[in-house]
Amino acid sequence: MKKGLKILIFIGVLLVVAYFTNPKSQTHKNKVTERFQEQNPITGALGLGSFVTNIALEYNDYQIFSLGKFDNKIISIGLFGMVFIPASLDINQAIEK
Fold first, then answer.
1. pLDDT category, 94, cuts 50, 70, 90?
2. For residues 57 and 75, what is the distance between their CA atoms, to the nearest angstrom?
3. Burial of 67 by CB count in 10 Å (0-12 exposed, 13-18 middle, 19+ buried)?
4. Which residues contact 53 (CB under 8 A, 6 or more apart)?
5. For 14-35, how does the pLDDT look when each residue is reduced to its tens digit (9 = 90+)?
6. Residue 80 structural domain
7. Residue 25 backbone zone (phi > 0: left; psi -120 to 50: alpha; other: beta)
8. 85-to-5, 9, 11, 23, 92 alpha-carbon distances in Å
9. 77-86 LR contacts (CB < 8 Å, sep 24+)
């Protein structure tokens, strides 16, 4: 089998796996709420984090990856069943703006 065909098959398999493991909206909300609770222990314990994320988090599904946004600012990226939030992101600043 030619090298080019092997690469195309690999990319195809990778895209199919990405499609079927793309995180759903609730996974993004859970991860953002978890980060909010880490940064705001008191208000997080009162449930404010899940209240804010359920109302304000915008979920964009691009089939092979997904994004979570607050006010058009990307705060979470979902890929291969995982949701990533940049370590440097301050959820409080993202919500306030």
1. low
2. 9
3. middle
4. 29, 32, 33, 36
5. 999 999 999 999 999 888 888 8
6. 3-96
7. alpha
8. 35, 31, 25, 13, 13
9. 78/22, 78/23, 78/27, 78/28, 79/18, 79/22, 79/23, 80/17, 80/18, 80/21, 81/21, 81/22, 81/23, 82/23, 83/23, 83/27, 83/28, 83/30, 83/31, 85/31, 85/32, 85/35
Domain count for the chain: 1
Amino acid residing at 68: G
State residue 19's pLDDT score. 97
Tokens of 8: 């195309």
Tokens for 24?
A: 């759903």
Q: Is 22 helix (H, G, I), strand (E, B) or coil?
A: coil
